Task: inverse folding
């Protein structure tokens, strides 16, 4: 049976039987994540046609399917949850039992997912983001949409009771539920063309490329022979044009795949503000809903690659505190495509009323450049000195040909110049924005009061030039402002420490 709309407190409940689909998907994702590298050579071997493995492959697929479905049914059967007045308890595990106790005041965001089957039955999967966890600490698969909404409201009420200041802000913003961003199909095309993750596909098909190339050569050879038999001859120019056409076709194919992936992830993407909570919803097959409290934002990053610069669009990400430990993971709220004017309006809204005046437009003339000694140090210590040492050693072995290593110097000089030219910073009494980039741009904005630790670093080279690097540590990572005047770095450090100590607001 389906989950009750309002489960009673202190009683153990099951979710809908459709949760089996969630556990099947979870198992498949784990297999893909951990085993695709070893499966790629197997796929290449089968594709080569050197031996008949259809029977073995069929048995393996059927056996794996039975194990996945059987494991999913058992995972559902042993899954239970219980609501208390201040937390949610989750019991799960078939062989290794595990119980989670997720306190409401630790929950930073409640995200939901809804695949096509869940959509028919008005079910969602609820994911809990908590402070200190590396990802979703807990999941409630296949629960009713009304239950998910009531749970979100219950957690919000608990937070208001615990923090009167938050309650006051929520009351002031209670009337707000404004749509801030809505993306259409043109935006999906822009996102797909600018998405660098499409290159991952090349890594997967890498083991197949050699076999595909051999088959393509054989196909072209047969095509040319048949054309010659029919009196058609190809010259060098025709062959070159054929090669160019093949390359263009491959590029277009990957562009289409990337655009299709953008539609799957962000179709009908909508961003809105619900009181003091930022929410987004999007997705073609599976609808994803994410949320983040404005007060939890640690940094705002505005990024622009080469293709995005042609489109005059940016990607805006708001980062929360990330987990501590070996496998650190950032919690990111992403707005995949936005114009710079909209980005500045959003940051004013996110940081209001205390900040948000500064711009994150990387082409703004307000940015203060860093010292050119940043560029010179990189050319010297990364380019010239290593190149001279390696060229000297190479000349002993290869003669004058070893001097080709010196070409490393102009390459590093070009990169260093672009890094320096795009580096800069600006600040006011409440926040600072750092600009950087090589091929594209990235600006990172943060509030002074959310800095946990700040240091002024000086290398021997910087000390001689009266320069230093300001490094600000936050719960979402660190932000560096390199090669600024030493006195300026110390003044900023002291002011940041003053803002942290004088603020009575939470840093997280």
Result:
């Amino acid at each position: 049976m389906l989950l009750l709309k309002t489960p009673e407190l202190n009683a153990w409940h099951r979710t809908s039987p459709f949760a089996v689909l969630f556990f099947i998907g979870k198992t498949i994702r784990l297999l893909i994540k951990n085993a695709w590298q070893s499966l790629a050579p197997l796929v290449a071997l089968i594709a080569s046609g050197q031996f008949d493995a259809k029977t073995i492959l069929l048995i393996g697929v059927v056996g794996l399917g039975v194990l996945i479905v059987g494991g999913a049914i058992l995972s559902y059967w042993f899954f239970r949850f219980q609501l208390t007045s201040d937390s949610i308890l989750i019991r799960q595990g078939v062989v290794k039992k595990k119980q989670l106790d997720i306190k409401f005041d630790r929950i930073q965001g409640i995200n939901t997912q809804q695949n096509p089957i869940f959509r028919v039955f008005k079910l969602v999967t609820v994911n809990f983001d908590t402070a200190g966890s590396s990802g979703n600490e807990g999941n409630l698969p296949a629960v009713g949409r009304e239950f998910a909404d009531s749970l979100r409201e219950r957690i919000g009420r608990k937070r208001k009771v615990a923090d009167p200041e938050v309650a006051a802000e929520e009351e002031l913003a209670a009337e707000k539920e404004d749509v801030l961003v809505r993306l259409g199909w043109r935006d999906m095309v822009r996102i797909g063309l600018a998405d660098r993750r499409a290159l991952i596909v090349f890594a997967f098909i890498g083991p197949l490329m050699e076999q595909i190339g051999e088959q393509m050569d054989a196909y072209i050879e047969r095509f040319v022979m048949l054309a010659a038999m029919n009196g058609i001859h190809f010259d060098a120019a025709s062959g070159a044009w054929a090669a160019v056409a093949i390359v263009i076709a491959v590029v277009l194919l990957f562009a289409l795949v990337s655009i299709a992936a953008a539609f799957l992830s962000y179709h009908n993407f909508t961003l809105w503000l619900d009181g003091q909570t930022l929410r987004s919803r999007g997705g073609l097959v599976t609808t994803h809903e994410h949320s983040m409290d404005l007060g939890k934002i640690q940094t705002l990053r505005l990024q622009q690659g080469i293709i995005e610069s042609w489109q005059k669009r940016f990607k805006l990400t708001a980062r929360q505190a990330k987990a501590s430990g070996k496998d650190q993971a950032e919690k990111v709220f992403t707005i995949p495509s936005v114009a710079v004017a909209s980005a500045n309006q959003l940051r004013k809204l996110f940081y209001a009323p205390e900040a948000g005046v500064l711009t994150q437009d990387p082409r703004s003339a307000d940015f203060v450049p860093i010292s050119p000694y940043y560029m010179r140090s990189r050319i010297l210590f990364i380019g010239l000195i290593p190149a001279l040492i390696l060229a000297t050693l190479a000349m002993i072995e290869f003669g004058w040909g070893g001097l080709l290593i010196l070409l490393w110097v102009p390459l590093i000089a070009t990169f260093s110049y672009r890094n320096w030219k795009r580096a800069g910073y600006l600040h006011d009494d409440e926040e600072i924005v750092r600009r950087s980039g090589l091929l594209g741009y990235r600006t990172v904005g943060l509030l002074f009061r959310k800095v946990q630790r700040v240091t002024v670093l000086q290398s021997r080279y910087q000390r001689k030039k009266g320069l230093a690097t300001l490094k600000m540590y936050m719960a979402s990572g660190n932000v560096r402002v390199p090669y600024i005047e030493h006195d300026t770095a110390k003044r900023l450090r002291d002011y940041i420490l003053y803002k942290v100590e004088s603020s009575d607001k939470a840093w997280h």
Notes: The radius of gyration is 28 Å.
